[in-house]
Design a protein that fits this description.
single chain; about 475 residues; alpha/beta; Aspartate Aminotransferase, domain 2; Aspartate Aminotransferase, domain 1; 7-stranded mixed beta sheet; 4-stranded mixed beta sheet; 14 helices; Dat; Aminotrans_3; diaminobutyrate-2-oxoglutarate transaminase activity
């Protein structure tokens, strides 16, 4: 495709047919489920893409700061990744191989094992499961239940680990159901969230109190928690609103689970492969999990999911967790190329530097604006929490979320050619997840568009409020 430049953002070339996209979108709405999400907030029809850029069917150019919800670590259609996919297609190799060994799988696993966090890479086992992060999470939980014989799972407020439920409940094969309960109980624990601290204190104290609370609750003979099968957490909560776990808190969770013999599962589906400024987010804190859940970027933009875990936990019987599409050869080729690019081109370090540049710019945009309650992030996982400027802050300075203003800012960004998404409580956090290959020029352009969009959305909101008050 023709190289897309920042000067082209939001511009459609002569000769583009403006009727194509509306027709396709109308057919999508007529045919597809009401469960559609991104299609509602991003009414575009991509037809070309390269790097950080997308071209719509109407010819408009968009700067993509969503990147497949963090899947596209090296951007759209990276030439090295595309060449790997084309090589496999030209070779005549099988595209579907279940869990049978193939040269592509062997090369992928060799690269992946070498990229695992120190302490896990020395003697890991890899489970290829269904090609989604949700299935990998289910697999990790089932393994923990199998190893420990316990059913309860320790999880955290704000967590997001996938959309599946009840698959085992509706399965008729008794052999698949007998070893484990359909589901164990989930004990919900407070995740440290300084801006909306669950303990009402905020700041560093949020993490300190959370760690102390978890430890005391687990040790309380009247705390109501039976022996847990596992603890699962995200080093940075993504869908929960871009909330980084403090390093000291992560180390505390590792220490208390180790001391009590509780397997620690880290969900790095979105944070992994350089996204947060280290290859795996847990490396920043020096934490080694018992199980590491991976998907998104490890497939190079194609469906793939893997659980890596300590070899001594490998107590499963053959077929204890399976999946028809666990042998996606194109995804393994694309994934190996992506992992190698991130490693050899120091893209984790690039993510850290670009993230600092963007974070500084976001803080500048937020300065003096009471409707931006918090700016936070790690590497190229960044978020701005949009709040009501009219409502009084609570005791720790947090105002109520303003999801309507957040949605308006996102719409203004799209109109100007910038794709971002929402998350967090009430979908009031503007989320930025650009490819790790984002340039300084592209980062600055995104900040410029976001600043214009914030101003436009707030002016529109103020005008609408004034009109409503006048009418009343």
């Amino acid at each position: 495709m023709t190289t897309i430049s920042p000067a082209d953002v939001g511009v459609g070339p002569d000769g583009a047919d403006p009727a194509v996209a509306p027709a396709i979108l109308a057919r999508q709405e007529a045919r597809e489920s009401a469960a559609r999400t991104y299609a509602r907030s991003l009414p575009i029809v991509p037809v070309e893409a390269a790097g950080c850029w997308i071209v719509g069917a109407d010819g408009r150019r968009y700067l993509d700061f969503l990147a497949g919800a963090g899947t596209l670590a090296v951007g759209h259609n990276h030439p090295v990744v595309v060449e790997e996919i084309e090589r496999v297609l030209r070779s005549g190799a099988p595209l579907h191989a279940l869990d049978i060994a193939t040269p592509e799988k062997d090369a992928f696993t060799e690269e992946l094992v070498g990229d695992l966090p120190p302490g896990l890479r020395e003697d890991p086992k890899l489970l290829f499961c269904g090609p989604t992060g949700a299935d990998a999470v289910e697999a990790a939980l089932k393994l923990a239940q199998t190893v420990t014989g316990h059913h309860n799972v320790l999880a955290f407020t704000g967590a997001y680990h996938g959309m599946t439920s009840g698959a085992l409940a509706v399965t008729g094969k008794v052999a698949a159901k007998e070893p484990l309960p359909v589901a164990g109980a989930v004990v919900r624990l407070p995740f440290p969230y300084p801006y909306r601290c669950p303990f009402g204190v905020g700041g560093a104290a949020s993490a300190e109190i959370s760690a102390s609370y978890v430890e005391r609750l687990l040790d309380d003979s009247c705390g109501g928690i039976t022996s847990p099968a596992a603890m699962i957490l995200e080093p940075v909560q993504g869908e929960g609103g871009v909330i980084p776990a403090p390093d000291t808190w992560l180390r505390a969770m590792r220490e208390l689970t180790t001391r009590r013999g509780i397997p620690l599962i880290l969900d790095e589906v979105q944070t992994g492969v350089g996204r947060t400024g280290t290859f795996w987010a847990c490396e920043r804190a020096g934490v080694v999990p018992d199980m590491l859940v991976m998907s998104k970027a490890i497939g190079g933009g194609l469906p793939l999911a893997v659980v890596a875990y300590r070899a001594e936990l490998d107590t499963w019987a053959p077929g204890a967790h399976a999946g028809t599409f666990r042998g996606n050869q194109l995804a393994m080729a694309a994934g190996r190329a992506t992992l190698e690019l991130v490693r050899t081109q120091a893209l984790a370090e690039r993510a850290a530097a670009a993230g600092e540049r963007l974070l500084t710019g976001l803080e500048s945009i937020a300065r003096g604006k009471p409707f931006i309650g918090d700016v936070r992030g790690r590497g190229l996982m960044l978020g701005l929490e949009v709040v009501s400027a009219e409502a009084a802050p609570d005791e720790i300075g947090a105002r109520p979320a303003d999801p309507r203003l957040a949605a308006a800012i996102r719409s203004e960004c799209l109109a100007r050619g910038l794709i971002i998404e929402l998350g967090g409580r009430d979908d009031a956090v503007l989320r930025l997840l650009p490819p790790l290959t984002v340039t300084d020029e592209e980062a600055d352009l995104a900040l410029e568009i976001l600043a214009e969009s914030v101003s436009a959305a707030t002016v529109t909101a103020a005008t609408a409020t004034a009109a409503t008050e006048q009418a009343g």
